[in-house]
Amino acid sequence: MLSYWDLLLLILPVFAIVAIGVVLRRVHWVEGAAEASMIRIVISLCMPCLIFESVVGNPAMREAGNVVLPPLVGFGTTVVSIVAGYHFGRLIGLTVGNGLRTFALSAGLANYGYLPLPIMGSMFGADSRGVLLIHNMGVEAALWTVGVLVLSGASWREGGKRLLSPIVLALFVSVTVNLLGWGGHLPAWFIEIVHSLAVVAIPLGLVMTGVNLANHLGEPRALFEPRVSLGAMVLRLGLLPLFFLALARWLPCSLELKRVIVVQGAMPSAVIPIIIAQHYGGRPLTAVQIVLGTTALAIVLTPLWLSAGLAWVGV
């Protein structure tokens, strides 16, 4: 079992790459159209290749329990967390029109991509990322339906359209190819191309996460609001991890899925609510306060939750 300090050293490079992205944006190396284009390349090309490489040929992904249950867990835990965020936000005095809806989504949605992916790979090997990516199908479904509905009151249909993305398509194709055993028949040149694009997905995604965060650092005094920032820290990295660890311990599921649940419970808030709040009439500054606060605290608390959680759950 890895110690707290081992886990801290494991996650520090992840946050360091995010910090590099912040610096690149501040020195104007990445901005404007270049930023939008690079994000599109990561999401529409590199991430689908990473998904394909992580799923196809992965023996863990041939088990029904690692194909059917993970998306259900991803959807269920995300909905529960968003609802908990809504009620916790009311408890600390937030109201609709004053950041409550944005708080619910931002504090409730754990980082499910660029932070847990390298952590899972470093701790449990590359094959472990496949179950996380399948789990994330459920997270995406919850985000673009329940999450968007909570934030803006938009229709289920409007959120559902967002599910038709390159990432979801890549997951569907990858699972199908893997279950049918077609991976071994793919030409070597195709596998090499996919691998070459897959290996840059995580580092480039982390860099662009930092670039996106840097866009909101212009007014340092506005980045911390005690009620919002501290409330999100308590919920995201204090209370919700207990729910995730209890689920990981007592849910009858595979070892791989238990590990995914433990890691997800230790994550800070995801960055994407900042963008969603801008698009759907939420409060982007509230989302920024939550993301920055929980991410900073996660540098210290994530290794603690991982160490304690993995030991308690026994995975």
TrEMBL record:
Its main location: membrane. InterPro entries: Mem_transp_PIN-like (IPR004776), Na+/solute_symporter_sf (IPR038770). Pfam families: Mem_trans. Keywords: Cell membrane, Membrane, Transmembrane, Transmembrane helix, Transport. One of its GO terms (cellular component) is plasma membrane. One of its GO terms (biological process) is transmembrane transport. It is found in: Cell membrane. It comes from the Bacteria. It is a multi-pass membrane protein. The chain crosses the membrane at residues 7-25, 37-56, 68-88, 100-119, 131-151, 163-182, 189-208, 228-248, 260-281, 287-313. Belongs to the auxin efflux carrier (TC 2.A.69) family. This is Auxin Efflux Carrier. The lineage of its organism: Bacteria, Pseudomonadati, Verrucomicrobiota, Opitutia, Opitutales.
